[in-house]
Amino acid sequence: MNDSGIPGSPVHDRRMAELVAAALDLPPDRRARFVAEQSVLDPELPADFGREALSLIDASTDAGDFLSGVTKGALIDRVARDCADARGESPGSALGPYRLIEKIGEGGFGSVFLAEQSRPVRRQVALKIIKLGMDTRQVIARFEQERQALAMMEHPHIARVFDAGASPTGRPYFVMELVRGRPITTFCDDRALSIRDRLHLFILVCDAVQHAHLKGVIHRDLKPRNILVSASENAEPADSGTGGAPTPKIIDFGIAKAVTGKLADETLVTEASQFMGTPEYISPEQVGTWGGGGYQGNTGDGVDTRADIYSLGVVLYELLTGITPLAAAGLRSGSIADMQLFIRTVDAPPPSACIADRRDQLPSLAAARSIHPSRLATRLRHDLDWIALRCLEKDPARRYQTAQALAFDIARHLRAEPVEAAPPSLRYRAARFARRNRVAVLLSAIVALGLIVALAGTSFGLTQARRERRIAELQADRAQKTADFLRTTIEGVGPGVALGRDTELLRGLMESAATRIAAGEMAANPQAEVELLLTIGMTQSELGQHEIATATLTAAWDAAQRLWTGDHPTKAACVNGLGQAKAHLLHSEAAALVAEGLEMRRRLFPGDHPDVASSINNVGWVAASLHRLDDGEAAYRESLEMRRRLAVGRDDPLLALSLHNTGALLGVRGSNSDSEALLRESLDMFRRLHPREHPSVATGMFTLALTLRKLGAIPEAEALLRESLAIRRVLYKGDHTLVELSLYHLAALLLETSGDEATEALAMATEGAAMSLRLKGRFGDRTWKSLLLDRHIRRDEHHLAEPIARALLAETFERDGSKPSATVAKAMATLGAVLVPLGRLEEAETNLAAALQMRRQLYKKEHTDIASTMANLADCLHKRGRRDEALALVRDAAAMASRTAAPTQAARRRVEAILAEIESARPPPSSDPAPHP
Amino acid sequence: MNGERPGHTLSATALVHEAFTRLGTHPALGGAAAIPGSTPYATFMRAAAEAMRRILIEHGRARSRLKRGGLGRMRVPLNTIRDVAQLAGGGEGDDHAEQIVALDDAFRRLEMHDARFADVIRLRFYAGLSVAETAQVLGVSERTVNVDWTYARAWLARDLKQLDAS
What we know:
The complex is a heterodimer. Chain A is mainly alpha-helical. Chain A has 42 helices and nine strands. In chain A, a hairpin with a 3-residue loop joins strand 2 (98-106) and strand 3. In chain A, helix 1 (10-24) runs antiparallel to helix 2 (28-41) and helix 31 packs antiparallel against helix 32 (695-711). Chain B is mainly α. The chains are: A mainly alpha, B mainly alpha.
């Protein structure tokens, strides 16, 4: 009998094991029968053999996951080797001429020992022993390839690799320059180095990497642990306490390549946390070559010098923010495949955004960088963001192509120069170009804006919400930069200069830009949108396109109201600008809009403030253009005083402008000597601020001339008008309302003063009238007609005056209809006055009577014009034989004139002359014969 | 790695390292033991596996004592005992200590019943060897290892289940 019958015997248990295992291979419903059959087959099995088997089977199936996770065995193998290694090479043992002294570090590939070299020279070195499990011959062979290049590398910031060999147990080792130092990130934190100092240190590292690349050596494993920094030894501790200039040294150059190769793949596949840490410093193409994918490099395995650039970018990022980009992007350790995908596809947030996201760590991060917490994110914004992200581009072709380029860009940043990594905003590109040709820059900026705005609207075919958000942020940022640039350029150029050239093109471009913006193409950044619309609208307004400006500014105002519910400076600027544009068009809402802007600005900026002064000035200007001269003068004075205070004794263009506006208004109101004083002051300031050929200088001269004329200072007025005209001709080169205006006033003055010899004046009038027709169209030359008409009337050339007067009246009717207006009244009164001396009394009376009635309706009170018309009508009636009527009328007229006009005024003198004439005229013979006594 | 610190977790790696360190002074061991298939390797592995088991038990018993102040048979849900790394790597407030202890009790009973089957558990579960490696160490075929493993596992399951009943 065999032992199988004995429970507990090896044979018995063997049989039991076989039976249980076989039964478990069968589907559950067949097991019981199988067991029964098998146990019956062998009579030597004990009676309860089957029952025992079944109970085991049941227990097994009920156990579920029990012991299901048993590992595959690689673990113990490796660790066994580890321990064998550690024992084989330990302090005291020797490897050739190197005697191990103590272990100083543990890395992914092996251990690092401090060793003493005895031959050929005595010195202390670092000896790195690579773990078992790597094919030693291959490792050594690969190292030999690098050895030549490594031997030629001599750089103060690269640790030398002296030698390589194999231990008796077959493990490769490398002998390197001993570097005592801390990882660069730790070093910087310990010393609380500022951003600037960190960057200086980093530049040294880039320099070293560049040197290596030039020798054809790629590091492939750059990370803080491989960039050790020490304070140099030969410094006096007493001075700054930091012990001297920090010196970085990059270690393990050339080793990574020798050791890795296939190994990198394996170690990533298996327990990454055991051997390499999370692969945060590895470039996407290094990750990507495993399992396919990744970008094509030029070294066959897809990895070239730009992989080192990426790693440098990670280190830079960490120096700036305290964490690696992948951690900032949310890398969680997960399956290897997940991590690889993450590295290859997810973009890190810009350093400044990363800081902003980590509020709770901000105090310690800022302290480690010797900067105030509130300023850290700002410090990193723009330049450093762009530089870091450019290093981290997934596509190597988009990174810096050399470490030197990276270093140079950082250096540019440190010198506050534009960096190359900046996105294609115009600010950097155009900085130098702008000085050469400002208008061309403006035009190209607007065209570029159109392109950028167009691009901002396209979709990038995004697949991940995070990328979308990042790109949207970058777009918004780009839009903001463009808007800033445009605004400063436009404001700087000034329409005064731009006006002289290519206004058509400029207007067209601005209009198309405004339309596209209003159509929603800058939705990514509503604030930039508002600012840009505002700038364009204001420029259009200054170019004289008030209708279009109104449309643009209305869009800006609407958008501003949607964006900000309360007060905001930009919002105030919108409503103010819109009010100004509408005032040019004489819209009744203009005053309310400008007033709203002023109130908002008063709330935003209590006390003296340029924006408030500007708004007050605009209120005044709107009031004046609506003929509310009291309000206008008050506002101008207030704005002027505020600007005086703000200017604190300096010349300021806005102060000069206020002086001018106030002086001009006073002139209109008749306060001529006050007007003169202010206008002189403003003209002097304009002259100091601007070159001679400048619109403000021309306008200053012009306005002063008008006042001087009223004061009777004719020669100076004439000189100023001539000069103003000359400047304007130069500035505007052809037809322009301001040239015409100068022509007009100069011609008017000359006509008045030159008597018969008015050749020049008449020539000007001809030119002016023609220009006016070209500029304004059919009725454009009305003022010129009036000018000539006045001259003819003054010279009693009624026959010459009559056709002009008729034409004027006809044109007025055609243009304005017959509804009551000052212009219609004037035309009728003038024609009437002209017809009287010509003897066409009936028609004259009709006109004059109508004019009088209209004027009474319009003025609603006494006025010199009414008195004039009354006097002329009286004259007419007198000539028609109705002396009593005429006398009564002219007496009233004279009385009115004495109240409304100064004695010297021409109109009043004329009324008095008519009075005298009628009074002194002998009554006509009565129609009834009187009885003779 | 010098000794156990109660209250801290013990990772699988640490476990193995500890084992090897304890065995480190054995003259028969050394570089040669790293060569699979050799006799020294087998010896080494078996010893190492046992050492690992003992370390784990110490760990578990120490924590179990801390928690409940005495030994006692207890019920463990079998699903929760999957591999040594999981047992060794338990965190605060879990029942791994109890599981370790319970499993060990069962294991010792198995060992008394048939040492060969206990070997397979020791090498595969406690030391984490693969089927092939276990076959090498034990000098048997892989099929045998699989059969033995199946039986041993069922036996332990039944043993632990029976605790419920008592």
